[in-house]
Design brief:
Blueprint lengths: L7 E7 L3 H11 L5 E5 L12 E2 L1 H9 L3 H7 L5 E6 L2 E6 L4 H8 L8 E2 L2 H14 L3 E4 L3 E6 L4 E5 L4 E9 L6 H6 L3 E5 L5 E8 L6 E5 L10 E5 L6 E6 L10 H11 L7 E10 L2 E5 L3 E2 L2 E3 L5 E2 L7 H21 L8 H22 L23 E2 L17 E2 L2 E2 H5 L4 E6 L11 E6 L8 E5 L5 E5 L5 H7 L4
Parallel strand pairs: 1-2, 1-10, 2-7, 4-13, 10-19, 21-27, 24-25
Antiparallel strand pairs: 3-6, 4-5, 8-9, 9-10, 11-17, 12-15, 12-16, 13-14, 14-15, 17-20, 18-19, 22-23, 24-26, 26-27
Length: 477
């Protein structure tokens, strides 16, 4: 990977959460010099975003961390409802049949549980493997930009110079505030929620244990979920509005003992604890000049739908190849305008789903796996066919097998891919565009399908005319 030229870094990424680390990985494999700076002295220690949806699993496979993610996690356990210290019946946390049907061609037919801290460790290790860099204890306190780049001011009194900056520094983003970009949203629920990672004795790990409110005013909702791949449980408890939530070991012991059959001493350790109030908010813009917002800096979700971390990683996946194309391949900088064009509507849609799940209006299922999301309305989606089939420009490219080869194995990597089905393929530079051929087949049908580096069909046609112009416009030679 190249390093900063004349002290100018290609991309400074603010925040070493899942979004920033995923973007760092994507840029590193493209040879882009990126530096991740993080205010804290280390990676986030909690389990908060523990659910990885099928589409995110496909992204993580492409980024080269799938084996580690699979080894670190596990399937979601069946919920168990408790009443008066007795098991009262099972509760399915999501509609497994609906999820499986929605997964369709995907190799991932259900959400996969990995505590957020472990996902970050895996992405961090991959970033270092690729030669990427993270600097901890580096707080961004301001920035200034001009036509050539961005000057990033740090709390230490030093300054970084970058061609572009990506704010991945969370819902309270210092970069977003410095840019003066507002967020429009609402409080989903005024009741504070405790979320903590704890060690518990005397509680099995076969179920996600749910303790409904007792109705006597002496306790609210509580759920205790075994965290796959660890010895920990995630304890979540809701409190009445205005409650001062006690995050100490004694405080959490009291909550567990009050709301369940557990004794206080069954909570043996608190490894991490936090309090939040569920809210939904969307940044008014995802870009200001050479600075982009991604992840929670751009959209804040209720955790109920399991969409926040997933939408955030896919922000990074969308932005990474575009920054790489501009910085390394000579694509027109107008390509970067399509980041907000494509991702902000998706974020708004997923915010609606997250809020709906929280309020019991939407069931976890087809709407939450994120496999049916796409960019048909994007300016990058060009479908030249007179009779377009089920797969259109802008759609996620479905996985399939062509001449004994799995399509996603061909797609994996930072390149473009031309899929030629029952149609003669033109000659292309195979370093820039990989070619895979086969007979016409469902769900694609017949034609030429140019798949973007992020796995979405960018261009589709019955013939090669116009393909070279499309590739040239995006810096692909």
């Amino acid at each position: 990977m190249s390093r900063a030229v004349d002290g100018v870094i290609d991309v400074v990424i603010v925040g070493a959460g899942p979004t920033g680390l995923a973007l760092g990985v994507d840029l590193a494999r493209r040879g882009v010099d990126a530096l991740v700076v993080e205010k804290a002295d280390g990676l986030f220690p909690g389990s908060r975003g523990k659910g990885l949806q099928p589409r995110t699993m496909e992204v993580l496979e492409d980024l080269g961390v799938l084996d580690a993610i699979l080894a670190a996690g596990g399937r979601y356990p069946v919920g168990m409802i408790w009443q008066d210290g007795e098991r009262a019946g099972e509760h399915r946390m999501f509609d497994a049949d609906e999820v499986k049907e929605a997964a369709g061609d995907s190799a991932f037919s259900e959400p996969w549980m990995v505590p957020q801290w472990r996902t970050q460790e895996i992405l961090f290790a991959r970033l270092e493997e690729l030669g990427g860099r993270v600097e901890f204890g580096r707080e961004v306190v301001g920035l200034d930009q001009d036509e050539d780049g961005v000057s990033v001011r740090l709390g230490s009194g030093t300054e970084l110079r970058a061609r572009y900056v990506v704010a991945a520094d969370g819902g309270r983003s210092a970069v977003r505030r410095a840019l003066g970009i507002g967020m429009t949203g609402e409080t989903v629920d005024p009741n504070p929620v405790l979320v903590s990672d704890v060690r518990i004795s005397g509680l099995d790990r076969d179920n996600w244990h749910v303790f409904p409110p007792r109705g006597d005013g002496d306790g609210g909702y509580m759920a205790i979920c075994p965290l796959a791949g660890t010895e920990d449980f995630q304890l979540v408890a809701q409190f009445p509005e205005g409650t001062d939530v006690d995050l100490s070991l004694d405080g959490i012991r009291k909550v567990a003992a009050t709301r369940s059959h557990l004794a206080p001493e069954d909570i043996t350790e608190v490894r991490w604890a936090s309090e939040f109030r569920p809210r939904a908010a969307l940044a008014d813009r995802f870009r200001s000049g050479r600075v982009f917002l991604a992840g929670d800096a751009a959209h804040v979700h209720s955790p109920a739908g399991g969409q926040g971390l997933n939408t955030s990683i896919q922000d990074a996946y969308n932005l990474g190849w575009k920054l790489g194309a501009v910085l390394r391949d000579g694509a027109d900088t107008a390509l970067l305008d399509t980041y907000e064009e494509e991702r902000r509507p998706i974020a708004a849609q997923m915010l609606g789903i997250s809020t709906g799940v929280h309020r019991g209006e939407v069931r976890r299922g087809a709407a939450t796996v994120q496999l049916r999301l796409g960019y048909r309305e994007s300016s990058l989606a060009e479908d030249m066919r007179a009779d377009a089939g089920a797969v259109r420009a802008g759609d996620r490219a479905p996985d399939t097998t062509l001449e004994g080869v799995r399509l996603f194995d061909v797609l994996r990597g930072p390149h473009w891919t031309l899929v030629a089905l029952g149609t003669e393929a033109p000659a292309l530079d195979e370093k820039s565009v990989h070619l895979v051929q086969g007979p016409a087949q469902e769900p694609y049908g017949k034609g030429l399908f140019l798949v973007r580096p992020d796995g979405y069909v960018g261009w589709a046609s019955d013939r090669a005319a116009g393909l070279t112009d499309y590739l040239t416009r995006l810096g692909v030679r």
